[in-house]
Amino acid sequence: MRRFLETGPEKLHNTGSLAKRRWLSRPSRRSTTCDGCAAETGHCRIGHRRLGRGGHARALARDPGIDVFVELMGGEGDPAKSSVEAALGLGRPVVTANKALLARHGAALARLAEKNNAALCFEAAVAGGIPIVKTLREGLGGSRIGRIYGILNGTCNYILTRMHQERLSFADCLKEAQKLGYAEADPTFDIGGFDTAHKLAILTSLAFGTEVDAEAVHVEGIESIALADLEAADELGYRVKLLGVAQRTEAGIEQRVHPTMVPQGTVIAEVDGVTNAVAIDADTMELTLMGPGAGGAATSSAVVADLMDLAAGRRVPSFGRPASGLVKPQRAPMQRHEGGYYIRLAAVDRPGTAATIARRMADETISLESIMQRGRDRRPHGGDDPRSVDKPAPVALITYATSEDAVRRALAAIEKDGVLSEKPQVIRIEKS
Asked: Which residues have a catalytic role annotated?
């Protein structure tokens, strides 16, 4: 470790023997053996010892010849969980990029690390190229954070950016993202919002001093976003982004992941492509950090930054305060969320439809800020295009601040009235 600190990260690739035989030894994600091992043997070597394939990760974590265990396998269960526990149980520092592991077991791992006087470092687990963990854990100790939110998944942001700029469908942009390597063959974890939810759960703990509570995160993905929503957002002065938001409210800590309309011209609205951004609203300041959220360079940079801290002897509690001081979060029900809403309705084009919609909104005391309606296709010289007579009339509504529960009740009543031809689209509005 002292040698690494003296030579610096730029010499990392020239210290292969040190990296592979001591503190940077780690299981290979491709062959399930350790770096420097012969995959065809089915065994892992550390120095002159050989470890069987089945328990090599845990054995490596327990090996007395390493100074720190670096876990980059991923997954909330074994072998990642048991090997990290083995290292921490021996008082050995751990550096991990495993957001799923921390989202599910973060509080327990923090307690184990504290009990054995070990460090648990995870800068690479959230928005790898942005030093958000260090910022929250060390830089904002004197501030009371009210809200933290941001773009935490590059795949989703790339898809929404391409849809907006090129007017392409969601399906076409997803295929393009997969071709370029921005999306997995099975993209559910990304586009369904679950990757963002894991990251948000970790940020919430760091920001508010609570135990990590991934189960409390309300999750919606971007699969239902259509070009019509992006076009309406443009006309109304918004951009659509998948945001993770954690906020203090009177009802408790609100954690939610969903497509969001943000005002054009704000920093978050202008973050495009695979770039990530995290915004912090505190009593002392407002701060926004931007950078690459994933990829080999960003992740390795964050891992090496943690190693540099360990080598220099810098160590703080895993989540910014003693594990015993992390409190059980008071969950704020999503039904209690309050804010503005964009609602797109495919309304049946017949007399009384508009009045029915307006009455149901009024029943729930929902005030409308704006209404935008596009008529059926028209002929160049007037009159309806016969091909569009049976098409629904698209109606877009923007509400003033109201509750989630009120919006859901109003839409359920409108659907029951039979004046809609398809399920309503709802996108929440996040004011900056």
From this structure: 199
